[in-house]
From TrEMBL, chains A, B:
A matching Pfam family: F420_ligase
Protein name: Coenzyme F420:L-glutamate ligase
Gene3D superfamilies in UniProt: CofE-like, CofE-like domain
UniProt keyword list: GTP-binding, Ligase, Magnesium, Manganese, Metal-binding, Nucleotide-binding, Potassium
Superkingdom of origin: Bacteria
Coenzyme F420:L-glutamate ligase-like domain location: 12-233
An annotated Gene Ontology molecular function: metal ion binding
Keyword RNA-binding found: no
Keyword RNA-binding in annotation: no
Length: 257, 257
């Protein structure tokens, strides 16, 4: 019967600017006596990609604009962090502070199109106090570079998903979603296919890349150091031009903007 | 290294009212020479639970109210289907029809608290034209009944997630989410714990039950007949009083109502 195995890659060290992630992944796999086979998929936490690419900024290097200072007052955040959030964003979606809460919430549309809290700017899991980790400049390109290096090394087709952890408007808790893709289709388009009883499936499109990212969260605990998760056994159709933005609802279709 | 295996349970027949899902799952497992071990988790598609419990209504038996007729005109849907959607819901969240679209969208808060399109009323994957499948009356109770029967049979602790397929406001495609739970914690509360670099994790709570549901979508294809997915190898803390409503953001905290 169809079956897939999800495994952590142990021993990934603290990643710093300039580190070669593909080489580090190969070393980790070799160390646990594994290799990549055709169709294997890796989900990689955005943080290690951002760190390797130097997509970070130190808060002491940031000067807050007037807009950031105003907004920071409203939500009781460091104006320099708000400045970074604003510069990573193309649109404020929602700003809210509950009277009893210490800090408010800034939900924005990131320059890459993802809607999330604080433009995905993150200050946890860095060993440098005051360092803010941003999304990679072009996460699809990052995924494709890593996929290419691994495909070359193992001489097989490899899928890559770069994931980040987002909240959801109506559900508590966070899940991982895909912010960068190589070879993995964003959506499994089923339009035109029939359901198990011959009825046409109208608008069904499982968000394959987000399902993979979400599944990686089962082993990629935030307090642990498991930023790379290996999937073996899944059947999927390679889509070399896939991109994470295929997962984004166009702004004009957003009913909750 | 930590590793988990996700497998389909093959040969689940078409489920009808009164069917004993636990017995059918045991038969399926036995047939593929598997059994449940301590800590195993099953994600079960809502549809088979609803069918087994008779949580269905035939559209010919429905009389549309005036409110349903008005709303149906606005979104170009069958007023009887709209009547069912309204009777399953406690609140309309958003009604929208794009001028060029054939049908509009009705997003509601289901009586159980979940916010989704059409109050999760479903007309696919039934062999009876005109039959609408509703959510189970009390999906947590359904999950706990199935967990209890399986725990008794295999003499071990079993986790159950009942899943349904929901869209997301800002991302295209659907993912499975948890609508019923037995033993599985809804959220992995990490508050108070430290990240890998000793920094406190403020508000991190991976939505474990939704991660499991989402992962099941990798093998539970909508056009296939794989409504039961088995997870082996995940470490989790049993929470006998868990419930799917732990995943719901309270209405007063909903910034997008």
């Amino acid at each position: 019967m169809p079956s897939l195995t999800i495994t952590t890659i142990a021993g990934i060290p603290y990643i710093r600017k300039g580190d070669d992630l593909a080489a580090i992944i190969i070393e980790g796999l070799t160390h646990q006596v594994q290799k990549l086979d055709d169709g294997d998929i890796l989900v990689i936490a955005q943080k290690v990609v951002s760190k390797a690419e130097g997509a970070c900024v130190h808060i002491d290097e940031v000067t807050a604009s007037d807009q950031a200072i105003q907004l920071a007052k409203k939500v009781n955040k460091d104006p320099r962090k708000v400045e970074v959030i604003l510069s990573e964003s193309k649109r404020l979606v929602k700003v809210h502070k509950h009277p009893n809460a210490n800090e408010g919430i800034i939900i924005t549309e990131h320059n890459l199109g993802h809607i999330s809290a604080n433009a995905a700017v993150d200050e946890s899991n860095t060993d440098t106090p005051g360092e803010l980790i941003l999304l990679p400049k072009d996460p699809d390109a990052s995924a494709k570079r890593i996929a290419s290096a691994l495909s070359h090394h193992y001489q097989c087709r490899v899928g890559i998903v770069i994931s980040d952890t987002f909240g959801r408007p109506w559900r508590l808790g966070q899940t991982n979603v895909a912010i960068g893709l190589a070879n993995i289709p964003a959506l499994n388009l089923l339009e035109g296919e029939l359901d198990a009883y011959g009825r046409p499936l109208k608008v069904t499109a499982p968000a394959l890349a987000d399902e993979l990212a979400g599944a990686s969260g089962l082993l990629m605990s935030k307090q642990g150091k498991c930023p790379v998760i290996l999937f073996k056994g899944l059947e999927w159709a390679c889509q070399p031009d896939s991109q994470a933005s295929d997962l984004l609802r166009p702004t004009k279709e957003d009913l909750f903007a």
